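Entry 14. Structure prediction run on the chain below.
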Amino acid sequence: MPVPTIKYYVRERLLPPGELTSPNQADYGPGHERRLRLIRVLLEVGGLSLAAIGEVLEAADDPEQPVIKVLGAAAKGVTPLEEGESGPELDQARDDVSALLGRRDWRVSEGTTAAESLAGVIAALRRVGHGGLVELLEVYADAAEVVARADLDYVQRKVAREELVESVVVGTVLGEAMFGALRRLAHEDVSVQRYESRVAGGGAPPVT
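Output returned:
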């Protein structure tokens, strides 16, 4: 990492200053290296602004803040808020999300951006004539619970607070990409199984 960038992070209080060894030099230890790595993950992987990174680091540095609050701050900065048109479709979608959370007894913070993102997706599905996918919410929620438990099992292996924050950021962004790729692979496998069995049984082959 370029020295000017490090100095900039120090000026912005994202990184604690190093130990001066001379008027023009400072010594940076493993703690600084870990903090720089975390800033890079939050910036490049999480896509957070420097202001949002400052909030996350402030929470991570405060020993009075519970770990769940620190992780929540990181996840909130990473989770994108879907921009959607206001109106009855979005209002209905928000009601659907609220009902889903109630049925599953999911304890989430009020006004969480993930819930608003889900409402935006539901409204969009209905606008393009694929509201039937909304009926699969429970199926997706079942899978999401399994993945969430696996994510948290991985995160809980970390001890240092900065490692916890880094894990949740990477897991949120790259974990979703990994799950999406696995879903596409599973789609291909299930499609082959279903359509090959139909062809073998004399059914019509799939239209390609």
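The CA atoms of residues 10 and 17 lie 6 Å apart.
Filed with the rest of this week's runs.
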